[in-house]
Records
---
Amino acid sequence: MQVLVLNCGSSSLKWKLIDAASRQALARGQVERLARTEGAHAAAIDEALRALDGARVDAVGHRVVHGGERFHDPALIDDEVVAAIEACAPLAPLHNPANLAGIRAARAALPGVPQVAVFDTAFHHTLPRRASTYALDPAVAARHGIRRYGFHGTSHAFVAREAAAFLGQPLERLRLVTLHLGNGASACAIEHGHSVETSMGFTPLEGLVMGTRPGDLDAGVVLALLREYGQSVDDVDRLLNQASGLAGLSGVGNDLREVEERAAQGDDRARLAIAVFAHRVRKYVGAYAAVMGGVDAVVLTAGIGENAVAMRRRILQRLDFLGLSLDEDRNADARVSDAKRVADVGDPTSRVRVLVVRTDEELMIAEEAAKVVAGRTAVRQPGPIPIAVSARHVHLNQEALETLFGPGATLTPRNDLSQPGQFACQETVNLIGPRRRIDGVRILGPLRSKCQVEISRTDEFHLGVDAPVRHSGHVEGSAPITLEGPKGTLTLQEGLICAWRHIHMHPDDAKAFGVQDGDEVQVEVHGGPGRDLIFGDVVIRVSPKFRLEMHIDTDEANAAELSQHATGQLLTPEGEELATTAATARLLSRRPTLRRPALTGA
Ligand code: ADP
């Protein structure tokens, strides 16, 4: 499939024709200095189409900066999607109107060619509430959609995927810090494939120092400039968006190469600009390692991340305490290109891997657009998926069982669970958190090799712990918890998780649904009377031991007011019970995902 990728800015149009299957760029171009008039984007797209000289275009992929609360996945564009992107425009007044002008012009110029919007914000929709929430009056925040959205999502997702492939490890086992350091710059903490923290927020102004933007800034500075120092809103806008960052600090401009040259000549402003830039990035690396309880790899990308040898060294020096050390020679020699996307610049002894990865947002957009378009041809799906609410529970190994229940203790089955071979036990334990305890938590059998304690968000708050959302069995680096049994207590250094919602499937089911182990899908849940809800990020688990069933936790069941015999269905864009590949089901769905329910306090 040949996808024309359009990146429409306020004053330029960048385009690339990409063969999605071979990942080859077939043609590319740029139209600069667009007039700020109606029709300028249409003229630019005409120019691009002329340059394409009749080359086949099977689909158009549009980069759209802000998808607001609505878009968590790429969307096939129709009038309703255009209206929804328009509704997000107040959140990105510089970007979304230009993106929309491109969409309108491309739809007019290429009628009948499917068009897909790919959003910079979408990858960050998995930010937990504690990371996406500003500590503001919630009524004000809700009224204006003020929260942390995050940007550069396409790039962070792309380099994370490339890094995992290079490391030969599944993304869902890795904790990554990705650093997109270009003219715009942002950091992202990616835990097991999901963005859990990112440095840009409500707008792309927050976070790292950028080419012309300051990044983090006390909001009081803005108030003081407006109130005490007589600046207008436009003055402050210009200061923050155009006259700050590397350019503002150095007085040289936003190109790091020139700032470095000037610094080498002894210019103190240029030196300070470099030091402030590097310091800010370092600070975020440390913060994000703390957020994830550790880090397996740091990934640098975009113009500065891919090319600036000295800046990489400044950012990553003296991080040995994290288990991270850079190899000076590898760092100096690293070259990445479309042909060789990844360079390993870590010292061979470094526990934390350090990778330079060439980003390619256009390629990612082309691939996403191709998936959405391919997914329009769907096939009939088999019957509904039963839903089970999984209450808090504990899995133990033999050693833990004996510590808690005495030497030689065995589990006493109480009743069988729906998954073959699994059972609830007579035995229970008490969970002791730093804040409060929860007594009588059921042990599930059979014994496992590792202990695991699965609780809900409400339990987490009650106990006073932060438990990561994890797939069952992935307990490395999760939260600690103390268990109390009749014969002893046991403190687990890790093992406490909130379980990712998931669907158990037999391989035959997986085949029928067209999904694989580890895929993420969206599921429409037919809950209580008149309440149909969409659960996003549902992971597929396939084993010959499993029977078809979706598991959600008690908070989610309460929020959805689920009845006893609730069922769910994999989603496709029209909301019909059609199957497609899981990835496509996820990418195609244009419905909002159910947010995790509010804490009810405890
Ligand atoms: P964007 O796409 O956000 O406009 P890029 O990803 O192209 O930005 O990054 C631009 C930045 O990369 C500029 O600050 C530029 O100076 C910097 N850069 C590119 N090559 C080098 C290099 N060899 N050394 C230092 N900085 C570099």
---
Amino acid sequence: MRVLITGGAGFLGSHLCDALLRRGDAVVCVDDLSMGRLENLRQARRNPAFRFIQCDVTRGLDVPGPVDAVAHLASPASPPDYLRRPLQTLAAGSRGTEHALALARRHGARFLLASTSEVYGSPEVHPQTEDYWGHVNPVGPRSVYDESKRFAEALTTAHRTALGVDTGIVRIFNTYGPRMREDDGRVVSNFITQALGGDAITVYGSGEQTRSFCYVDDLARGLVAMLDSDEPGPVNLGNPAEFTVTELAGLVRRMTGVEAPVHYRELPQDDPPRRRPAIDRAVRTLGWRPVVDLAEGLRHTIDWFATRSGDPATEPLAEVGARSADLPVVG
Ligand code: NAD
Ligand code: UDP
């Protein structure tokens, strides 16, 4: 297969590039590098079957040559990233998704949308099943992300029903692992960098809110399984083992061996109090389930954060497409 991955220089996208290249697929990675890093593609760029194009998908999307599948991951993804870029986030979910779908349609390609557990908002149903419609504040701060993904799901579904595009939607739950940005503001990267740097661990609110953390290798395997299937979804991809934020802080302190103090901060507005995926559909339709538990995944992630040297993205780019739109970044 020749697979186009938007957002391929990011955390999940770069692991997907590597997973597909490993099994012999050709990969075209499109990213505007607003949050992604060329460093994530170091391994991929050594492979002659890999091509990188710097391009803002909200401005248009075209690539030379055949395309058998499109995986659309381009979007600001961590809460601090999307809260700082409200308009870019809405544009990525709407115009970006439209351009990616149009390209898939032109090529007769399979289209995979990377949606999110955030479509469930602050869930009243627990664990979250795919038939739950969600509980989202449409004018709250997180709405720029949640509603953009909900719109992207609707647009994807309409392309399937009205235009016959072969589409699949996955709803990804909190995923962690090597190549997370140390400054992305997510809880796993924050706690690890804080502990390793000798800083206080910042727990927002009481720390009693829960999340279910999936290791990135498991998640990448799920994305590949969805690309290979003709399943329309939506399908939840996540690890159903549920932890409080306080439990996560304790685990990171124990595993880094750093007795970092815990500082409590205000809970962000509309922060979901609990989240856990029901994965029966993924097991049934994709034969997928996660196999890496939190302790093992954290060990790999802590080791990676502890040993990485940092490699600024200074290498020249092969190709440059549409540049990023001039939308304001807040804060
Ligand atoms: P990330 O920020 O590491 O990657 C996103 C990538 O998209 C970045 O490389 C960024 O530069 C790129 N991008 C953003 N806007 C773009 C645009 N307009 N044009 C081209 N490239 C653009 O985030 P991630 O964690 O790898 O998330 C990837 C996808 O998975 C996102 O769509 C996100 O919503 C979804 N997701 C991730 C998680 C998670 O836990 N990591 C959970 C749910 C959903
Ligand atoms: N969180 C925290 N301290 C941090 C970062 C996040 O306590 O330094 C909390 C956050 O309020 C949320 C949970 O950890 O309840 C997961 O946050 P993250 O940003 O990783 O992802 P979310 O699931 O909110 O999108």
---
Amino acid sequence: MPLVTTAKMFEDAYKGHYAVGAFNVNNMEIIQGIVQGAQKLNAPLILQVSKGARAYANHTYLVKLVEAAIETSGLPIALHLDHGPDFETCKSCIDGGFSSVMIDGSHLPYEENVALTRKVVEYAHAHGVVVEGELGRLAGIEDDVKVSDEDSSYTRPEEVYDFVTRTGVDSLAIAIGTSHGAFKFKPGQDPKIRIDILEEVEKQLPGFPIVLHGASSVIPEFVDIINQYGGKMDNAIGIPESELRKAAEHAVCKINIDSDLRLAMTAAVRKYLAENPSHFDPRQYLAPAREAIQGMVEHKILNVLGCANKA
Ligand code: G3H
Ligand code: 13P
Ligand code: ZN
């Protein structure tokens, strides 16, 4: 099976009231762990690459690793640019073999976001690639951009129809209270997301696939292991899985997960090295890290996404 776009995945996910996991990838062990988890549960998969991942691992290395994942797994896999910062980066990924790109103009004034997104859509569609746009701003950190709580803003449902029809995007990321990273809420804050805004968006855009960024749950078990073995991640808080399940049953067809993979991997490496202080072969600590990624992906498919056996 070749690389696929997300078009059919999202159509099926919308109708089936589930979501497809979009997992961030940066190296071979992460890709292998994710793919093994999806393969075990026969789940469709989006592997996404950020600007930072391309800078770290090299575009061609990542594309070739994903090609290997497709060849060995037989799964429908989409390769997606996460948070494309400008037209040039999107074009480079479209020309360089991706099947889906995000253009993130969410920090721009509305009309500039429309114009930039439209430009990317025209180029992408002419090359058989689908596009995700974003309206509203999430708090948190992504690459070199840090958005403070005060600068974040919910998506305005009254804008989504205009944005989608004028840009021609294939899916839309919205801001409903999720945020990037491992510190999403302050201690004591109610960790809820605005399902009411999602419902309003859904009314404006019936049948249209919505994307949720910043959707890690920051599972305490992994934070505890990190803290137990020398880490310091006090007050790390994520989105409750029950909130994400509600979103997936609504119009959310793609749920982005990166921080939970990072936590699982880091917990496994810290634990392994603490328990085996004389080991120095990277395969010895990266094998449990890869297994931890696989376990996390299986957990997400079963408890959050609901996409087992939908490949
Ligand atoms: O949304 C951001 C993702 O977690 C990617 O993170 O930009 O550090 O690669 P990154
Ligand atoms: P998390 O930081 O919650 O995993 O979000 C990842 C994300 O949105 C990638 O685009
Ligand atoms: Zn994101």
